[in-house]
Amino acid sequence: MSALPPPVIEMAGARKTYRSGQIEFEALSGIDLSVTEGEYVAIVGPSGSGKSTLMNILGCLDVLTSGSYRLGGEDVERLSEVALARVRNRQIGFVFQQFHLLPSLSALRNVELPMVYGRVEKTERRERAAAALERVGLSDRLNNRPGELSGGQQQRVAVARALAGDPTMILADEPTGNLDSASTDDVLGLFDELHAAGRTIVLITHEHDVARRARRMVTVRDGLIVSDGATQEAAA
Ligand SMILES: Nc1ncnc2c1ncn2[C@@H]1O[C@H](COP(=O)(O)OP(=O)(O)O)[C@@H](O)[C@H]1O
Ligand SMILES: [Mg+2]
């Protein structure tokens, strides 16, 4: 018997119902999903299928109506708002479609910023930010502002910011949605490198061509998983 890598995500019977007045809408209708350490998983599905709802729950930005969710072995459904925020900061590195970089700050300061809120001491903060930017291939752009960088480079800065806290997983929501095809390749190439280095990556996208670059593809439709399996990349 070989030891399995520890589970990062363990979700069972996950349901999410939105209520507005008398009207209820079930956006997730019973999702079972596990992701183990080091996996590179894409969650794909058409608009309205429940991807953002799932992302918000995986990212501890929202909670389930019923079912269970464990992140890094912690039962997230039982946590208070404050504890949830702590888990979020410690375990998840977010990458968004809009890079969410502050235009007036250099790449280095942008990557440092979450660590300012995380009360990491200044010298360590700076070292970690510089190391993360080096990791994404931007060591020669530390002092550039976002406006001086290409879209692909800006998203690399955002990935560096996600990595700097050494999270349990990278959670990327449509990370290539604002990028041209060259920059899309650039960012997906970076994800390949991070995966090869053992990072756990969950990539949410409505684009099949982007999803198939992951090693495993989970397809969501109408709040349910309709397929889940290895991609061609996994065999390559
Ligand atoms: N806050 C909300 N209140 C009511 N319905 C919502 C809310 N957010 C999302 N929905 C509905 O839930 C479904 C799934 O939405 P979403 O998770 O955003 O899907 P996707 O990201 O795949 O486009 C959609 O039908 C959407 O209209
Ligand atoms: Mg969405």
UniProtKB/TrEMBL annotation:
Q: Which InterPro entries match?
A: AAA+_ATPase, ABC_transporter-like_ATP-bd, ABC_transporter-like_CS, ABC_transpr_LolD-like, MacB-like_ATP-bd, P-loop_NTPase
Q: Which GO terms describe its molecular function?
A: ATP binding; ATP hydrolysis activity; transmembrane transporter activity
Q: What does the entry list under GO cellular component? A: membrane protein complex; plasma membrane
Q: Which Pfam families match?
A: ABC_tran (PF00005)
Domain ABC transporter intervals: 9-236
**Does Plastid appear among the keywords?**
no
- In its UniProt entry, what is this protein called? ABC transporter ATP-binding protein
Q: Supply the source organism for this entry.
A: Microbacterium protaetiae
